Amino acid sequence: MKALIAIGTQSAISGGAATIPTPAVETVKHIALAGNELILCANIYQIYYEEKITTERIEELLKDAGILAAETCNRGTSN
After folding, report:
1. CB neighbours of 62 closer than 8 A, spacing ≥ 6?
2. Alpha-carbon distance 14 to 31, whole Å?
3. pTM metric for this prediction
């Protein structure tokens, strides 16, 4: 039930934000909407797993899904 309420609330917020006409400011509006979607995902994760998601966990999930490269290179070091 908590997830349903979270989805409904976030949908209302993003739906309201999307209907406002914003000539020449579409990029800013899309960034705000994307942030809203990220908050929704984090809230659903917290409800489902009963723990707050960390940046390390997000990185791990993206790597497991193949969306993020497995390891980053060390920059600025020379051997």
Report:
1. 68
2. 11
3. 0.58
Q: Distances from the Cα of 11 to the Cαs of 6, 7, 37, 45, in angstroms?
A: 8, 6, 9, 17
The answer to whether residues 2 and 47 touch, using CB atoms and an 8 Å cutoff, is yes
- Label residue 65 by pLDDT band (50, 70, 90): confident
User: What does the chain come to in residues?
Assistant: 79
Does residue 42 carry a pLDDT above 80? yes
Q: CA neighbours within 13 Å on the CB side: how many for 79? A: 1
Q: What is the dihedral of CA 55, 57, 62, 65, to 10 degrees?
A: -170
> From the centroid of its chain, how far is CA 8?
17
What are the extents of the domains in the chain?
Answer: 2-64
Q: List, as own/partner pairs, every contact residues 65-71 make where C-beta atoms lie below 8 angstroms and the sequence separation is at least 24, other chains included.
A: none
Tally Cβ neighbours within 10 Å of residue 6: 17
